[in-house]
Design a protein that fits this description.
Keywords: Membrane, Transmembrane, Transmembrane helix. This protein is mostly helical. It is about 95% helix and about 0% strand. The protein is rod-shaped and about 80 Å long.
Length: about 55
C-alpha cells in the first residue's frame, strides 16, 4: 500500500466523519429549536390558562 492510497483513505474517512457530524449537528440544532419553540408555546398557554382562571 502506497502513501498516496493511505492518505486517500484517511481523507475519505474524515470526509465521511465530517458529513455525518454536520448532519448530526443540523438534526440536533433543529430538535433544540423545536424544544425552545414548544417550551415557549406551552409557557404562553399556561399563562393564558392562569389568566382565564383568575377571571
Amino acid at each position: 500500500m502506497g502513501i498516496e492510497e493511505k492518505h486517500l483513505e484517511v481523507f475519505i474517512f474524515f470526509r465521511h466523519l465530517f458529513i455525518n457530524l454536520s448532519a448530526c449537528f443540523h438534526c440536533f440544532f433543529t430538535v433544540f429549536l423545536c424544544l425552545i419553540y414548544c417550551h415557549k408555546a406551552s409557557f404562553k398557554s399556561e399563562k393564558r390558562i392562569k389568566i382565564s382562571l383568575y377571571y
